[in-house]
Structure formats: structure tokens, C-alpha cells
Design a protein that fits this description.
Order of helices and strands: EEEHEHEHEHEEEHEHEHEHH
Distance between the termini: 15 Å
CATH topology: TIM Barrel
Number of strands: 12
Radius of gyration: 16 Å
CATH architecture: Alpha-Beta Barrel
Largest sheet: 8 strands, parallel
CATH class: Alpha Beta
Shape: globular
Strand order of the largest sheet: 7-6-5-4-1-12-11-10
Structural class: alpha/beta
Length: 221
């Protein structure tokens, strides 16, 4: 499993994201990203370029639900030379754009609304939706597991075990108890953003990142 460090708070990129990355670039985390708002595009490009120079895999997560907003987010990710576009509600036009621009696409499933986002829908329905998107060519799925209005731990376990593609558990992983549940579900990756800024794992940003990496993958100790 991989930790994706999100330089975000309440689903918005923090204003000092570049400085925070600089202070943590030598952490154990190899996957880094942030959201499509509110940094200007030129600052986004510079920050992603720094991440790439440091050998990081890069993510842009778009918290938007219309086709136009999702496509705009995909174009933003391509302009920033991102590796993976996360989020958006699935549309064929967004998938096609990603395929044409060497972007791996991991859309949301279920009924997603608000910012911070909330997830609704049946587990069976979301699994069926995910399989449809993967069959069409999506790389994987961005599952807002702990934003789910139902049994999040059950959703995470069943979804990861039954969806034949990379699954990222995104949002509100803010305790060691939830990390234990993440380990049980064993997704491809998971995100942490706000919880690091709230100090949920104890210590500086760098110390928290390394603690989580060691907790999830003890062999890195």
C-alpha cells in the first residue's frame, strides 16, 4: 500500500503547499498530490515539477461533479504533467482525454456531493459502477470510503476485494484505528491530508508522514 500525501485541508489545497513539500520531500512517502483549487495554475505547475524532480508520483484530485468541471480538471492535470487524475464523476469525454494525454484516470463512484465531499449509494451499486468504468478503460477508482454515510469499513473491505483494479481510499483517514481498517481492506493506496495538518498522528508533518508509512508497511522500518 502507498500513502498519498495530500497538501490539502478540507478539500482545498493549502496556500503554503510548496513550502511544506520542500520541508518533507525527503520523507518516506513517494506519492504526493493536491486539489484543483485554489492555487493558480503557474504555482501548481512549479510544485508538480518539484515533486517530479524529487522522483515522486503525482496526483491531482478534482472535487467537482459536472462534465465541464471534470474535463477542465483533466486539462489542468495534463498541463501540470501529473501522473494520475483522481476524482470527478465519470464521463466518457474525460476518460478519452486522459487516454489521449497519458493520464491515468481514477474517478469517483457513488453519489458524491459537497466540499468536503460526502458519499452516498449502495455498496453493490458502487462496485457495479466501478467495474463498468474499468471495463471502459479507467485505471482505477477513487473511493471516498470514510466520507460514506453508511458502514465505511464494510464498504472499503468489500469494494477493494471485488474491484479488479487499483483502488485509492480517499478522505478522513485521521486515526490509527482507521489505519488498521485500511490495512485490513488493503487498497492500492490511500490519502491523508487534513489529518496531518491537524496533527492527528503526532509530531511535525515530516514525522507524521514517516510514522504512517512505517505503520502501514512495517518492513520499511
Amino acid at each position: 500500500m502507498e500513502l498519498i500525501v495530500m497538501l490539502t485541508y478540507n478539500d482545498f489545497t493549502v496556500s503554503d503547499a510548496a513550502q511544506i513539500f520542500e520541508s518533507c520531500r525527503n520523507s518516506k512517502a513517494c506519492y504526493w498530490g493536491f486539489k484543483e483549487h485554489p492555487l493558480p495554475l503557474d504555482k501548481m505547475k512549479r510544485l508538480y515539477a518539484e515533486m517530479k524532480r524529487s522522483g515522486k508520483t503525482t496526483f491531482l484530485e478534482v472535487v467537482a461533479y459536472s462534465e465541464a468541471e471534470g474535463l477542465a480538471g483533466a486539462k489542468m492535470a495534463a498541463a501540470c504533467n501529473c501522473d494520475i487524475l483522481m476524482g470527478t464523476t465519470f464521463h466518457d469525454s474525460i476518460l478519452q482525454y486522459c487516454l489521449e494525454h497519458n493520464l491515468r484516470y481514477m474517478p469517483f463512484v457513488g453519489k458524491v456531493s459537497g466540499r468536503p465531499s460526502v458519499l452516498e449509494g449502495s455498496i453493490e451499486g458502487m462496485i457495479a459502477e466501478a467495474r463498468e468504468y474499468i471495463d471502459k478503460g479507467a485505471y482505477g477508482i477513487d473511493l471516498l470510503g470514510y466520507r460514506y454515510v453508511g458502514d465505511a469499513a464494510r464498504l472499503n473491505r468489500e469494494f477493494v476485494s471485488r474491484v479488479p483494479a487499483p483502488v485509492c481510499l480517499a478522505g478522513s483517514i485521521d486515526s490509527y484505528q482507521r489505519l488498521d481498517e485500511v490495512k485490513e481492506a488493503h487498497p492500492w493506496a490511500f490519502t491523508i491530508g487534513s489529518a496531518f495538518f491537524d496533527g492527528c498522528f503526532g509530531g511535525t508533518m515530516l514525522e507524521q508522514i514517516d510514522k504512517v508509512c512505517d505503520y502501514i508497511n512495517p518492513q520499511t522500518l
